[in-house]
């Protein structure tokens, strides 16, 4: 997940991602021309590194492989915080779900985290790949791996 808080660390994070990883471009606060320019820079790195670049937000971007949080062309990922949201996202055509917050996160201070038990109950038997988000890092991945997650997403884990 891109985020302005990463600043220049974004470029190091993109270089460290394993080939085939996904990047969800956010940066909503930028003016349209700045947003397109940053997306184009990230898309260049994504092509070179074999990363899948998705766009969050309403405006289509040249080079996107899909969208996050809405119907659209290509790969469609959707956020889910409850079982009801997960089912609605699947009905809307989600190819994968980003389920959060798995653990406490700086992005949403004070928000109740799911933890492994509630995370597992929320995702049990769903028909699409599950990507854990919220307070995730390698340790969190190990805690949720028995639940069959497809992967994990983060912002702060890349800022370290």
Structure overview:
- The protein is globular.
- Strand 1, helix 2 and strand 2 (about 50-55) form a beta-alpha-beta unit.
- It has helices at about 10-15, 30-50, 85-90, 115-125, 140-145; strands at about 20-25, 50-55, 65-70, 75-80, 95-100, 130, 150.
- The longest helix is centred in the first third of the chain and has 18 residues, at about 30-50.
- The model has no long low-confidence stretch (mean pLDDT about 95).
- A seven-stranded parallel beta sheet has the order 1-2-3-4-5-6-7, covered by helices on one side.
- It has five helices and seven strands.
- With about 160 residues, it is of the alpha/beta class.
Describe the protein's topology.
Layout: H1 9-16, E1 22-25, H2 32-49, E2 52-56, E3 66-68, E4 75-80, H3 83-91, E5 96-99, H4 115-123, E6 130-132, H5 138-144, E7 151-152
Parallel strand pairs: 1-2, 2-3, 3-4, 4-5, 5-6, 6-7
Short description:
The protein is α/β, with parallel strands linked by helices. 32% of the residues lie in helices and 17% in strands.
How large is the radius of gyration? 15 Å
Q: In what range is the share of β-strand residues?
A: 15-25%
Structural class: alpha/beta
State the strand order across the main sheet: 1-2-3-4-5-6-7
Low-confidence stretches: none
Task: Please report the distance between the alpha carbons of the first and last residues.
Answer: 15 Å
Secondary structure: helix percent: 25-40%
Spatial shape: globular
Report the count of strand segments.
Answer: 7
Q: DSSP helix count? A: 5
What is the averaged pLDDT score? 94
How would you characterize the largest beta sheet? 7 strands, parallel
Give helix and strand order, one letter per element, not per position.
HEHEEEHEHEHE
